[in-house]
Amino acid sequence: MLVLHESIKKQAKCRVELHVHLDGALRPETAWDLIKQKGLPLPGDGSLQALTDALTPKEPTDLACFLKPFSIFLPALSGDLTAIRRVAREFVEDCSRELVAYCEARLCPQLLMPLKMETPPVWAAAADHANDANINGNTNGSQSQDVIAEQIVEAALAGIGEGEKTCPGTKVRLILCCIRGQPKWSAEILQLCEKFKDSGVVGIDIAGSHHTASGGDTHSEGAEVFQEAARRGVHRTVHAGEDAPAASVRAAIDDLKAERIGHGYRVLEDESTYQYCRGTHFEVCPTSSYLTGAISSLQLTSKRHPVLRFIEDDVSFSINRDDPLLTATSLRDEYNLLASWGCSEAVFARANFNAALHSFLPPAEKRELLRQLRDAYGVPDVDVRISDGDSGKAANLDKPCITVNTWENRT
């Protein structure tokens, strides 16, 4: 008898992603198309392959070098609401293909403002290959010099809405990012978080290298705005412990009232700080943590990835792509990398339930997401308490009561 093997056409959406940058998640084909439309410089022979090669770091360096490729493609998005809407729509479609039930994508709208500033934009300042065409902008296409940050958020949300209509079972929300070294943007970011809190914006973040931070205490830049965000009930996550020491993670929790930590790997450099932060959810980005040099710079005897310590200690974490256009990885690739280190499906299930629990969704939507995960994983029930309030401190939610293999029994 002939048996035909066919893939399952409708797979359950079972993943939750909390740390991915929308402007770093373009499809390579879309980046190439937009750059050509605007008449902007393309690397090498101008082919898609040459662009893809130029965007992906070949060896671990540091965060600044990792971010350099943004100067190649971000000018093609700047001030172009149609392009931003397209990227957001395609992002939802890509999430759906990655079996993502829920994703929080982050975006700094000011980085996508029309390029009319006299000084190089943040993403071009560190780029050796940034040239006048990149920095001064090219107004070909639908770029408008009158675009404001609010319109950029609206365009992203509109694209997300379009994507969700064609991708049932996948939900995407936005986190708006402040940028270290650009404190003048932060108050407006908080205002936009409040303005769009009922339209798809669920939180605030601060990203960028600590080495470009303003003021004396580089670990606590943005504290005033984030403390105000806590008072207003705006959820908070903070990039910390990536290119800065363990103290930056503690400062994020204490001074910026972070509920989650983006990256946070270097928290293991100080055991007392690590113990203090163990109740916090860490947004782990496995591939980018190597390409940014975060792992090679760890001041530890072992260069074993911190996520393995998190697993052993039952610390809450999620699995994320960060900037997939630069890492050239899918979410499946990130899971496969962890699997190669010995992580089982049970570890992935726990990570996704914890990601759902620590998401910034309103309580009712969070319960619905947990029901969706239960159905996907075939788990009969998850007994958790979800608070309707925000104490202003890092979240310490009850753990999902699901039966999974232990780390010791991971094989």
TrEMBL record:
User: Does the keyword section mention Metal-binding?
Assistant: yes
Quote the cellular component terms of the Gene Ontology held in the record: cytosol; external side of plasma membrane
Which top-level group of life is the source organism from?
Eukaryota
Its required cofactor(s), as named, are: Zn(2+)
GO BP field = adenosine catabolic process; hypoxanthine salvage; inosine biosynthetic process; negative regulation of adenosine receptor signaling pathway
Q: Which GO terms describe its molecular function?
A: adenosine deaminase activity; metal ion binding
Tell me the Pfam families matching this sequence: A_deaminase
- EC code(s) of this entry: 3.5.4.4
Q: Which InterPro entries match?
A: A_deaminase_dom (IPR001365), Ado/ade_deaminase (IPR006330), Metal_Hydrolase (IPR032466)
Instruction: Say which enzyme class the record assigns.
Output: hydrolase
- Residue span, Adenosine deaminase domain: 15-374
Q: Which residues cross the membrane?
A: none
Name the coiled-coil region(s): none
Keywords in UniProt for this one?
A: Hydrolase, Metal-binding, Zinc
Q: Which family does it belong to?
A: Belongs to the metallo-dependent hydrolases superfamily. Adenosine and AMP deaminases family.
- What is the protein name for this chain? adenosine deaminase
Q: Which lineage do the record's taxonomy fields give for this organism?
A: Eukaryota, Metazoa, Ecdysozoa, Arthropoda, Crustacea
Q: From the UniProt record, report the name of the gene that encodes this protein.
A: LOC108680464
